[in-house]
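Lecture 7, part B: from sequences to assemblies.

Below are the input chains for today's worked example.
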Amino acid sequence: MKRLVSLAILALALPAAPALAQDSATGTVGIDGRVTPVCILGDPDPALVDLGQISESSGPRTCKIRTISPQVVRLPASFCNFAGSVVRVSTTALTSSDTTAPQPGFSRAVNYTATATNWAAGSSAATSAALRDGTSPTASGLGSTQPLPRIADITVTLTNFTTPGDLILVAGNYSGTVVVTLGPAAVPD
Amino acid sequence: MIKRLTLSLAALALALPGAALAQQADTSTKHVGVIGTVPQMCFGGTLNGSDTFDLGILIDTTTGQLRSDLNASPKILVGSMCTSRSTITVTATPLTAQGFTVAPPTGFSSAVDYTATASGWTATPASYNTAAAANAAATQGRATAFTGDITVAISDFATTGGNALRLVADEDYRGLVTVTLAAVN
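Predicted structure of the full complex, as structure tokens:
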């Protein structure tokens, strides 16, 4: 029994020996860093929505806009690493490359609605309201604020393709643009 | 030595976030193009009423010669349209006896010429005379897309071979007027 006690004392004494030597010192080093607020939208898929022929070829609506099914664009793995972000959608109506003022009864503009979903409650939507001569082609809409950092596939759906006054479309190539912006709610543009 | 090291690290930590904030936007923007096409197309319109000019009796029954007062109400092609610049062309065939098909005897004719016009599409109506060797005015051009009504009329009736000739009897003299709208590049 006595022998066992002696061994325990020795074990306690050994670690204390270096501290007593006084030949080193201990300091602390602080490490500081930051993560900046970032939003990154995924690359649109598809990046170009080709509607093909947008006018009717026959029937009572010949040369007027045909029924165009909803067009879906995904922006995969979009994210913001901070709370309080928002999606803005801006649409520019499809307009003919021929900028000549259309004759009475004709339109060179096609309006539509772009709706972005799956970011915050509700959606972000914008409906262009170009006039038949293609003026005032742009509209934008802001969604509600996402209260948390989020990563998600944002879906943009293009619907409700119409021409002002349901007029006849001038022949030509038409193009428009949808701009999706993801950023802090405090700076929506 | 340790103290100096600590200060250096702190300075680095302060410098990096400033540079990052200045250079990295917290907003992301993507563009999606939307395209479509509207082809060049023309629609001849809808004929208002009957598709036939009914001239009735062609001759003055006291002379056997072509009546001088022949006329017919114009026909209207309602809602004609072209989505681009276009041409309008009118052609016509003489009124000819459908039953009496052999060569008419001397002093007689079995055909009536006339002029067909299509107006409302171009400043100068397209016109075609069935007796003319050439009809330069049969095709007219329009530089812009257009929609509207086209009025098709027939006039200037004349016995083929001369108005002194008599027309052979036939229950059915028939001609045809054709109006063509064509998109132009």
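Note for the exam: Chain A has a mean pLDDT of 89. Keep this in mind when comparing with the next example.
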